[in-house]
Amino acid sequence: NAGVTQTPKFQVLKTGQSMTLQCAQDMNHEYMSWYRQDPGMGLRLIHYSVGAGITDQGEVPNGYNVSRSTTEDFPLRLLSAAPSQTSVYFCASRDRGGPDTGELFFGEGSRLTVL
Amino acid sequence: SQQGEEDPQALSIQEGENATMNCSYKTSINNLQWYRQNSGRGLVHLILIRSNEREKHSGRLRVTLDTSKKSSSLLITASRAADTASYFCATDPNAGGTSYGKLTFGQGTILTVHP
């Protein structure tokens, strides 16, 4: 099993450019989410999805768009990149389970630099 | 906002010693989880403790949870150089049902184990 696969691993953008970070999981997980990790701030939730066609905002959604057309894929779009979006982005997924479960499976991260 | 606060921010010990990391949180939870992150890699789930549990063991890991104090601790016994990593606590909030994987992460503890 590949688990959660993120591409690209590294990307450099200029201010104002747009791009899409790809995320795919092969575990048939219903729930998927995007986090960003900045030094000293842990991980912060950007957007999440509870199934195909259903997405919602997390803690820091501004400047990002998501869609979920299939169970497997959950791309994150940067609409007009800004230096403040320089970060490491992680995609995660989990099975539905119940309130007593909830282990997240993470990808290896996409390191984005905006100049 | 960051729910979890971790202490210490950094911990340096010798191989064979025990490492203890603490996490505090603010709201009621379904469960609390601990994750490990090696440098430049994604997060890996270590252990989950439910809100009605007080202590849980997994190999060399021991986790405690005190819901009255809204705090948790992770103990790694007989540490090894390979345990060198960042460790994060994450809370699964009690919102009357499943949180859909919207975990809130602490800022992490950087553990260095010297051979």
Description:
The complex is a heterodimer of chains A (about 120) and B (about 120). With about 120 residues, chain A is an all-beta fold. Chain A is about 0% helix and about 50% strand. Chain A has strands spanning about 5, 10-15, 20-25, 30-35, 45-50, 55, 65, 75-80, 85-95, 105, 110-115. The model of chain A has no long low-confidence stretch (mean pLDDT about 95). Chain B is mostly beta strands and about 120 residues long. Chain B contains no helices and 11 strands. In chain B, strands 2, 4, 5, 9, 10 and 11 form a 6-stranded mixed β-sheet that branches. A 5-stranded antiparallel β-sheet of chain B has the order 1-3-8-7-6, with no helix packed on it. In chain B, β4 and β5 (about 45-50) form a beta hairpin. Chain B is globular. The N and C termini of chain B lie far apart (about 35 Å). The chains are: A mainly beta (about 120), B mainly beta (about 120). At the A-B interface, β4, β5, β9 and β10 of A face β4, β5, β9 and β10 of B.
Could you give a quick summary of the protein structure above?
The complex is a heterodimer of chains A (115) and B (115). Helix content of chain A is 0%, strand content 49%. Chain A contains no helices and 11 strands.
Keywords:
heterodimer, A: 115 residues, mainly beta, four-stranded antiparallel sheet, 0% helix, 49% strand, globular, B: 115 residues, five-stranded antiparallel sheet, 11 strands
Percent of residues of chain B in helical segments? Answer: under 10%
How big a fraction of the residues of chain B is strand?
A: over 45%
Helix percent of chain A reads under 10%
Order of helices and strands of chain B: EEEEEEEEEEE
Q: Kindly estimate the percentage of residues of chain A that lie in beta strands according to DSSP.
A: over 45%
The end-to-end span of chain A amounts to 36 Å
Number of strands of chain A: 11
Give a quick account of the main beta sheet of chain B: strands, pairing sense, barrel closure: 6 strands, mixed
By helix and strand content of chain B, what is the structural category?
A: mainly beta
Flag low-confidence runs of chain B: none
Average pLDDT figure of chain A: 93
Gross morphology of chain A is globular
Give the chain pair forming the largest contact, with residue counts. A-B, 33 and 31 residues
The major pleated sheet of chain A works out as: 7 strands, mixed
Number of helices of chain A: 0
Anisotropy-based shape of chain B: globular
Helix count of chain B equals 0
